[in-house]
Known about the structure:
By secondary structure, the chain is an all-alpha fold.
Amino acid sequence: xxxxxxxxxxxxxxxxxxxxxxxxxxxxxxxxxxxxxxxxxxxxxxxxxxxxxxxxxxxxxxxxxxxxxxxxxxxxxxxxxxxxxxxxxxxxxxxxxxxxxxxxxxxxxxxxxxxxxxxxxxxxxxxxxxxxxxxxxxxxxxxxxxxxxxxxxxxxxxxxxxxxxxxxxxxxxxxxxxxxxxxxxxxxxxxxxxxxxxxxxxxxxxxxxxxxxxxxxxxxxxxxxxxxxxxxxxxxxxxxxxxxxxxxxxxxxxxxxxxxxxxxxxxxxxxxxxxxxxxxxxxxxxxxxxxxxxxxxxxxxxxxx
Length: 305
């Protein structure tokens, strides 16, 4: 059946011609399919309704956030995420208490993407969730809201048993309040996980936290090269003269990237004590190290043109 309705509003939409009437008929078909016994048909119907913005469709899609099938639930949440409706946020917050891990961590993710601060406190609570996936997404999401209420909870998350969660907490603290969390980040320089130690060093360098200086010097002796590289980066950012001697020692590091970055940092600091050691590594076996040493020495203007 084709409807010929002009300039009349039907279920929240204006239908101007037979083509709009056909679109309305399709909408009703999709709405009926939302109750089909086959979850695949329900999930497809959800996506087919994506282009319909009226209240009837909105009600039906929000109702699918109660669907027993996880795939249908995720489909509905994906479609609803851009609609910025308070009811959607409330439904997702309610889903944080679902017995299904996949729904809880997807709820956290979607709430983080929406960015409504109403979700901050409920998400903070999920940092204690039994599921690592939920806690990871919670730590990541809290960095997106820009709400200082999350700072203490994220600092506490630096002690989580999962290194992935500890890294996400550091990243979020970097967005929210890296200077206010400097003390906790300094403690993370001794973390058991090399990725956590490395990321903590990088963030401390970005914030130019002087209090971290001695701890970063210690990190130059870390067993993992990625941590030593990050420590050099941080010392480079802080730029203190006190770093000259430790960085000169780093020119003999077994890993080429540490040597290269140390040479670059010494050139920026500009202390003449570094000239002779930099000249010595012009014979380094790695081409990148030699180039870094050359550029560093050029800063001292000791080469004649």
